[in-house]
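re: the backbone from monday

yeah here it is again, tokenized this time
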């Protein structure tokens, strides 16, 4: 077991294998999936939640752990964060954001509420209001990740060479927009859950 758990790729593959075993057992004892439209919509929702956990989990890691801890780390140890941990975390962070928005749009399209959600429920009497608000908040957050936070982090981390003043300004801009996304994540997650579970009724 230690051989699986000490290697991330093996751990992930074991997680997928366990899921397959559970699905087979559920099929044997309950019923096999019908693999119809409803199942594929569910599968998209699962992928959407999975990628969203990666994205928001890392957003909260940055804001609850890394940013507050940086002033406490001795200067000689900070390069390990900036050169090794942060670039890797930012890769998963931005691609988690991309996977979340793509799967969310595919899910909304597959279920036929994309247009109503974009218009925040104005065309259907409000039935898509919660999901629409959540989608718009998520879209703003995705935009911030790709077009504000990541370009500024590249300068702040030295991936793109800039002078010290620009580096400091970029670090502050990235932090402020990351905090903005943390702020937006709270109502966004509420709206996403409310859309399925009566949070506005």
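seq for it, each position gets an aa:
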């Amino acid at each position: 077991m230690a051989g699986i758990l000490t290697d991330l790729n093996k751990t992930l593959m074991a997680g997928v294998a366990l899921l397959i075993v559970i699905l087979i057992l559920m099929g044997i004892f309950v019923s096999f999936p019908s693999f119809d439209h409803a199942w594929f919509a569910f599968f998209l929702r699962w992928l959407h939640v999975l990628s969203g956990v990666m994205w928001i989990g890392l957003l909260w890691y940055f804001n609850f752990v890394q940013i507050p801890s940086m002033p406490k780390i001795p200067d000689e140890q900070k390069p390990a964060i900036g050169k090794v941990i942060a670039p890797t975390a930012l890769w998963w962070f931005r691609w988690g954001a991309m996977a979340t928005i793509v799967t969310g749009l595919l899910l909304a399209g597959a279920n036929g509420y994309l247009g109503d959600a974009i218009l925040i429920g104005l065309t259907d009497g409000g039935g898509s209001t919660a999901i629409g608000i959540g989608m718009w908040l998520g879209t703003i957050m995705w935009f911030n990740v790709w077009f504000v936070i990541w370009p500024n982090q590249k300068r702040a981390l030295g991936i793109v060479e800039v002078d010290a003043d620009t580096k400091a300004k970029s670090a502050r801009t990235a932090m402020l927009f990351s905090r903005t996304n943390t702020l937006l994540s709270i109502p966004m997650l509420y709206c996403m859950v409310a859309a399925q579970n009566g949070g506005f009724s």
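The radius of gyration is 20 Å. Residues 35-197 form one domain.
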